[in-house]
Structures are given as structure tokens and as C-alpha cells.
Amino acid sequence: MTVLEHVTDLTATTVPHRAQRPKAELARGAERPFRTVDQEGCRSYPLIAADKVGR
Asked: What digits encode the pLDDT tens for the residues 21-37?
């Protein structure tokens, strides 16, 4: 059994990362569509933490 401990929305911290990504050495050209989707609020990045409970 897993008990849900905490859910955190990381979307707001992802948008600044996407803004910097095209300037990175490893940029491959897919950054603009991802950034557009993030800015339009069409995607979210939740962090879900859970603990496994013994039997």
C-alpha cells in the first residue's frame, strides 16, 4: 500500500528553465514548442512523493 505524502506543482519553476534552454550548448531545436506549451498553461509538472507502507 502506498500513502500519498505530498504533491508539489513545479510548473512555475519550469518556465524559467525553458527560457534558458535554447541558449544551452545541448539545445536541439525542440525547446520553442515546449516553452510555448508551458507558457500557455497546457502542461503541468507535478512532483508526487509517497511512502510505501509495510504489510
From this structure: 777 788 787 777 777 77
